[in-house]
Design a protein that fits this description.
The complex is a heterodimer.
Chain A: H1 11-23, E1 26-27, H2 28-38, H3 47-60, E2 63-68, E3 76-81, H4 83-108
Antiparallel strand pairs in A: 1-3, 2-3
Helix pairs in contact in A: 1-2, 1-4
Chain B: H1 2-16, H2 19-41, H3 46-57, H4 60-92, H5 94-123, E1 134-141, E2 144-147, H6 157-160, E3 164-168, E4 170-179, E5 182-191, H7 195-198, E6 206-207, H8 212-215, E7 216-217, E8 220-221, E9 223-226, H9 228-234, E10 245-248, E11 251-258, E12 279-282, E13 296-300, H10 306-323, E14 334-339, H11 340-346, H12 349-376, H13 378-390, H14 395-431, H15 446-471, H16 478-481, H17 487-525, E15 536-541, H18 551-566, E16 571-578, E17 587-593, E18 602-609, H19 613-617, E19 621-624, H20 629-633, E20 638-642, H21 643-649, E21 658-661, E22 668-674, E23 689-693, E24 701-707, H22 711-723, E25 731-736, H23 737-744, H24 746-780, H25 782-790, H26 795-825, H27 840-866, H28 870-875
Parallel strand pairs in B: 5-12, 9-11, 18-23, 20-22
Antiparallel strand pairs in B: 1-2, 1-13, 1-14, 3-13, 4-5, 4-10, 6-11, 7-8, 9-12, 10-11, 15-24, 15-25, 16-18, 16-24, 17-18, 17-21, 19-22, 20-23, 21-22
Classes of the chains: A alpha+beta, B alpha+beta.
Chain lengths: 110, 878
Amino acid sequence: MPDPLASLVKGTLDLLVLRTLELQPLHGAAIAERIFQTTGGTFQIKAGSLFPALHRLEQDGWIEGRWETPPGGRRIKSYRLTRQGRRHLSAEKETWRRVVTAMSQVLESS
Amino acid sequence: MSLLRTVLARFRALRRRSHDERDLDDELQSYVDTLTEQHERRGLAPSAARRAALVEAGGVEQVKEAVREIRVGHALATAVRDARLGGRVLWRAPGYAVVVILTIALGIGLNVTVFSVIHAVLWQSLPYPDAGRLVVIEAETPGLPSASAASGTLFDPRQQSRLVTRIADVEGRDVSIAVDGVMERVAGARVTDDVLPLLGSAPPAVGRTLIHGQDARDLLTTGVVISHELWQRRFNGDAGVLGRHFTFNNMDVQVVGVTRPAFRVYLPPADHVEERIDVWYPMASAPSRLYRGAALLGQLAADTSVTQAQAEYDTLTAAFVAQHPGVYPNNQLRLWIRPLGDVVTSEVKPALAALAVAVGFVLLIACVNIANLLLARAKTRERELAVRRALGATRLRLVRQLLAENLVVTAIGGACGLLLAYGGIGLLDWLRPVHLPRQSEITIDRVVGLWTAGLTLACSVLFGLVPALALTRGAPAAPLNSGRAGSAMMRSRTLQRALVVIEVALSILPLLAAGLMLRTFSNLLQAPIGFDPAHVVTARVSLNLTAFRELDRRSAFFLDAIARVRAIPGVDAASVGGPLPFTPVQTTQRYWSADDVSPVPSIGLQEAVMPGYFDVMGIPLRAGRDFTEDEIVHRRPVVVVDEWLAARLWNGQFVGRRLGIDGTAKPLEVVGVTAPIRASRVRDQGTPAIFVPYHVYEIEQTLVARTRVPLATIGPAIKQAIESLGPGRPVFDIRTMDDIVEASIGDTRFTMLVLSGFAAAALLLAGVGLYGTLACLISQRTQEFGVRLALGASIGSVVRLVAREGGLLTGLGILAGLAGAIGVMRALRRLLYGVTPLDGVAIAGVVVLVAVVAIVAVSRPAWRAARVDPVTALRGDY
């Protein structure tokens, strides 16, 4: 299956990640897993897309990574949404909704 | 693009070792682990699960690379954004930007100029093959330090030394040439055969170098090597130039070689060799080279150090002196071997070092000034920065942003500074320091460019970091709570005051250095040189030796010429003599008392003169009389010496004593004693003077005339009066004696002028800083003044408050500066004359000057404080 994200706008992955983190802080693999589950397997995000996106979002200040060491385990970097990221996300959601509505109108018009 | 890629690669290389890289490893590792666990849970064997996980991850290294690129790209993007924001901020405050840019441009421009000079003059090795092996051999014997190493009856190291393989002798002279009947004076050099090969001009571009046996016959020159420039200019680059004849110093010579284009030589100042020599002509390695103060060139054997060669020479000289007692004064002789590069620059090194330090201080002041300006702008910026912090910008981000802002102005300032440096180097040509070697090589090249960039960057961090840290310190919300100066403002006020004190302190050193040089220069102008150069016009006369073959005819010519010049209206007195005091090439002479049974020779400077010379030059006769025409005509063995020489040899009665000198069979009878004369250096007594009549020692003569008529009028008149007597007696190089004396202290004048320029820049910057800071502090305290005035304080008390603050800051600055400067001034000692590094007049002058500038700087802010309207001040949100 070709990666559907490849053909989508770059912001989509960011939006997916931000939305996923809005609910709870997660580490990289868990983020991919959660997106895989919630989209019913449509978006299977590869590490090659995921980690650059995570680091980009971190540098933009939308999300922030935190190192945690669970008892007996190795250290894990989990990400959570920042205040700025939350604001950014709600703005992006609004934009997305408008895009989707507009796109649907175009595609479904008879 | 390749540059960008290099930069990126560098970034990556940095990152690879960094903390981030370990984190990235861990992060990806845990990702792969998690995937593996998932696969295992779905029933795969551990190894299969891991393989599947790795496949799914899609190559860990590629992922890492993608992440790294994101990070680097992000850093670059932030930098660009910072710079753009910085540009916008500045665009909104053009006045501030202009002041900062000008300040930086001044600081950087002066520094780059001085750096490019030091780079070319001191740091680049001389452009000779094996320059490291070239040395200078100087003889030191009582009464004549840095003299020539001589041969003949004197110690000749040429024969015995094994460690100094080649010894060459060179002497600069200006010479006359006539090609196709058109005459001109050009720079020439008398050289032994080894000189051109040693300096890397063998083989020359055309022909061969000089061979003494072929190019000179007795004292006549028959072959010369000419410069590429002269070949182009006077021979039109004629390919068949070899063997062409022309007239050189009234001799018929032929061209045997042409040097390569742009061949320049840099030799010890004592050799008086111009950087561009047009004619190279042979010098015999004649015995007794004692009559000059020049230095010999030598080439060390391969793998020999200067110390080893020095040790060998010490042994050789000691052996010679032991075998030949009485040749050297008190049997003392030391031959010094020094690297050529050191000798060429030794005279300018202390001055350049002083300039470098002074100019560094100017730059520091500029930086402090800008730091202060940045703090002063805090009033407007503080709230903006607080808002941005409240909105989530980190402190690091803000500091970086402030630094980027600075970098934008500094970069513009640095670029302007570079332009200024171009101008500065042009100005250097105009100031024309007399002995600045390698001046033609001073350019703005890549090294200088890189240095400028580095300096600019360093400055921007230096003046940007302190204010940036001060501004972003403390709780972000604090400034927002207060309508007026917040706590950060209070702190920045203290910082501002401290910076002003530093600034004033920093300006003291260049000012004091300039003050000391000024005193030195004025002392030099008033130094007791033993004659009065005012109103003396000089003109050199070159007699054609073939036309005036006999000594009597030459003497008669000069006596006639004197009479004719004396007859020119406006001329009070005239005579001839040579070499004149302070002209580059002086004659040294060995002398002794012929009255002594076993005389001890010493060395003096000798001048050959005609009657009336002492009168024209304003040399007072302390005893006895001048020469007479009769003595010249009848070639009487007479001599005049200066008081210093006489007192060294004899007690009491000087006139009538007998003086022995080299080159005369009979001793000379002392007929007159003059005041002590300084002829080689204004600075020190140097060497005693011997005046012999023209017939005793014939040398090219210079006509001297005492007149109040301006040079422009009298010059041509003198030229005409002598040249009209017939051909073969050209008159040239007409200048005033004042000019000659001043040229000899041109280096001091140069150092003084440049240092004064730097000091003025320092003072200006410090003054601007003081004014700016006080104005800012006062505008911050407008409300306080309003309250004071409203509560009944008099205007006078408010003005006093401001004045006291200004006075206190200046006073502290002066004290701190003096304390620091006095410690450093000792290093200037070599440059000074007649003043100590702690000269009271200079210190007082500096204090008064700074005080005056402070008063000017304080007066306007004080006036503004006094004019505060209490009502407006209390109502307004200042």
